[in-house]
Amino acid sequence: SGGGGDPRQIEETKPLLGGDVSAPEGTKMGAVPCRRALLLCNGMRYKLLQEGDIQVCVIRHPRTFLSKILTSKFLRRWEPHHLTLADNSLASATPTGYMENSVSYSAIEDVQLLSWENAPKYCLQLTIPGGTVLLQAANSYLRDQWFHSLQWKKKIYKYKKVLSNPSRWEVVLKEIRTLVDMALTSPLQDDSINQAPLEIVSKLLSENTNLTTQEHENIIVAIAPLLENNHPPPDLCEFFCKHCRERPRSMVVIEVFTPVVQRILKHNMDFGKCPRLRLFTQEYILALNELNAGMEVVKKFIQSMHGPTGHCPHPRVLPNLVAVCLAAIYSCYEEFINSRDNSPSLKEIRNGCQQPCDRKPTLPLRLLHPSPDLVSQEATLSEARLKSVVVASSEIHVEVERTSTAKPALTASAGNDSEPNLIDCLMVSPACSTMSIELGPQADRTLGCYVEILKLLSDYDDWRPSLASLLQPIPFPKEALAHEKFTKELKYVIQRFAEDPRQEVHSCLLSVRAGKDGWFQLYSPGGVACDDDGELFASMVHILMGSCYKTKKFLLSLAENKLGPCMLLALRGNQTMVEILCLMLEYNIIDNNDTQLQIISTLESTDVGKRMYEQLCDRQRELKELQRKGGPTRLTLPSKSTDADLARLLSSGSFGNLENLSLAFTNVTSACAEHLIKLPSLKQLNLWSTQFGDAGLRLLSEHLTMLQVLNLCETPVTDAGLLALSSMKSLCSLNMNSTKLSADTYEDLKAKLPNLKEVDVRYTEAW
Question: Where are the alpha helices (DSSP H) in 247-294?
Answer without folding.
Answer: 251-252, 258-267, 275-289
